[in-house]
Amino acid sequence: MSFDLKKSMLSMDNLIFGIGQISEMTGVSTRQLRYWEKRGYIHPLTKEDGKARQYDFKTVIAVLSIKHYLDEGYTLQAAVSKVSQYTKQASLFHRFMRRQLKGISIVDGHDALDLGYFDGTKTKKLYGVINGSETYFKLLNPDEVQDIPLG
DNA sequence: CTTCTAACA
DNA sequence: TGTTAGAA
Asked: What keyword terms does UniProt attach to this protein (predicted)?
């Protein structure tokens, strides 16, 4: 099987954690984690009666995020709401990039995101150039840029 | 030793 | 929420 750039870049999933691990990583008690679950705020991968819960990495991020807002003084409900908004935006961004990111190239001597053909003529591609902290877009013919091998 | 559920502080 | 008991 070949190396999947998008998968490796846009999904740091596949890792599984136990409730104790998440508790240690986030500072949220196992009691709280089970309570948040009952409230419908987090969802274990598996939830068979009497058996240990398993969580994915996304849940770790969610718990850390909720914890962050709780520490800021938000109520649990408000914290979850905040995280939900962020999660939705991240999901949209993720969906877009997963579809549009074709690879990494060199444009103007800098790293650039290959965002694919800009129009239906399949002549020019849109590149997102990254020059240090500065970024800008550029339309170029694919043969005008140097592609960086992936994987 | 860790996690689960349920109940009490 | 913390803690605890007894079972798994």
From this structure: DNA-binding, Repressor, Transcription, Transcription regulation
